[in-house]
Amino acid sequence: MAEISIFGKGNMGSAIGGNFEAAGNQVTYITKDTAVEKFGDIVVLSVPYPAIAGILAAHRDLFAGKIVIDISNPLNFETFDSLVVPTDSSAAAEIAKELPDASVIKAFNTNFATTLATKKVAGAHPTTVLLASDDKEAKEKLVDALEGSGLAFIDAGLLKRARELEAMGFLQISLAAADKISWTGGFGIFH
Fold first, then answer.
1. Crossing angle of helices 49-59/91-98, nearest 10°?
2. If I label 46, which of 40, 93, 114, 178 is the partner at 20 to 30 A Cα–Cα?
3. pLDDT one-digit tens code per residue, 66-106
4. Where are the domains positioned within the chain?
C-alpha cells in the first residue's frame, strides 16, 4: 500500500484517486483550502497546468524524494490552438527542472476521466495509461501501486516522450471539444 496525495478533486483527480483506492492505497486530496504539512509517497498534480507553478513554489521542499505524477496538458486555453511550453520541452520536463530531487512521471494525460473511472474507452476497450519518466523504478512503483485497479499500462520511455504524450492529449481534447469524439471515448491502445 502506498500513500497518495492528489492536488485537485475534479473529474480527473477523483477518477485517478478512485483507481488508487481500488488498488488498496490511502488517498488524500489537497485543495486550495487544505493545510499541507507532508505528502504521501506519490503526489499527483491533477490541476490545470497554469496552477502548477504556484503549487511548486508553495510546497517545493515537500516534493523531495517523492514520485510526482504530472497529468497536465499545457493547452493555451485562450486560443485552444497550441501548447504553452517550449517546442523542445513539455510540461513534465519543466516540472522536473523545478523539482530536481523528485521523480517526475508523465501519466494519465491521454486519458479522459470517464475512461479512468469506467476502465473502458468508448465503453468497450480497456483503458491504457501511458507513462514517461527518466526513473524506471518510479514507473514500476506507480504501476505496482495501481495493481488491481483494472487499468493497463505501457511504458512510453524516457521523460522526453512526454512531449509526444502532451501533443496526443492536446489532439484528443481538441477533437472532443469540437464534438468529433466523445468525452467517454478517446484513444484506445490494443496490445
1. 10
2. 178
3. 999 999 999 988 888 889 999 999 999 999 999 999 999 99
4. 3-177
Q: Which residues sit opposite 5 in a β-bridge?
A: 28, 43
Q: What is the pLDDT of residue 32?
A: 86
Cβ neighbourhood burial of 182 (10 Å; 0-12, 13-18, 19+) = middle
Cβ(100)–Cβ(64) under 8 Å? no
**What is the block-wise mean pLDDT of the chain (191 residues), using blocks of 10 residues?**
96 97 97 90 96 95 97 90 91 97 98 95 91 98 97 97 96 91 85 69
Note the CATH number of domain 3-177. Answer: 3.40.50.720
Helix (H) or strand (E) holding 130: strand 128-132
